[in-house]
Amino acid sequence: MQFTTSFIAFCVAAVVSGSALPAKRANAVTDVQVLNFALTLEHLENTFYAQGLAKHSAADFQNAKLPSWVRGRFEQIMKHESTHVSFLETALGERNYVQPCKYNFGDNSVKDFVDFSGMVETVGTSAYTGAAQLIDDKDYLTAAASILATEARQTAWVNSAVRGGAPWSTSFETPLGVNQIYTIASSVITSCPSGNAKLLPPLTAFPALTLPANTMPGKNVKLAYKPAKGAKTDGEKYVAFISGLTTVFVPLPKSGRVTIPKELYGVVFAMVTNNGTVADDSTTLAGPAYLNFGFGSDGKAEAFAI
Ligand SMILES: *[C@@H]1O[C@H](CO)[C@@H](O)[C@H](O)[C@H]1NC(C)=O
Question: How far does the signal peptide extend, from start to end residue (predicted)?
């Protein structure tokens, strides 16, 4: 039976790389907190597209050598995001809900805008994938799945039709936890209304992890991060590369240099951990950082067109 064979193959691969299926939920996050967390991300996306499209004109898109239909599609994505905002606000109804934060997206060119769009859609998809286990109400779960699929289509469109890369990464989307998502989102959030925090699950942003712009599978690169105050920095450290449902651990020597595993491709999230088999909130020292390794239809590494 094919399913059994491939499932066993997956389990073996997961054990080899020290990964497992996502851990079962072990917290008491409420649906209202999860919806407010989703609304936090939708506000970020909605503001990004509204500000970005106001800033980058049709002529700018043309100068960036993009076909004229690209900007119109981005306008459609912007409408999806604003619809997601009002949909979640309606779902929260009479309850208090989070307001937009202030952001610095740093998109000074159409290329930056396209890059950030690809990232934010992928991270949004990972957020909904990871948050599924936190939702109790089946109607909310269906609504979240419906948004998830749209975000995934948007990711696929940006990465393939616009950037000339692959629409997908591996056989599985990467589920990320709320603190992992919040860590990535924090890199563009400058301040939030003071009333937001009490409506959200308790959140921690881990220290930012940065890798050089030319990071590629097989390359030896130097990582940079500032450990959190009071973090235990002695002892073994590892870089956990999370891709789909698989995590690959590489020891991180004192030099801070690691060779990126050759087998990685597509979107990969990198974290520094103090454990060589477990990459979760309790073992994280920095990250996740978002990495996107382009690959052609032959599976070989390839640069993006934009
Ligand atoms: C990693 O975590 C596992 C599970 O908690 C534990 O058994 C193991 O000893 C830890 N390894 C290290 C190097 O801390």
Answer: 1-18
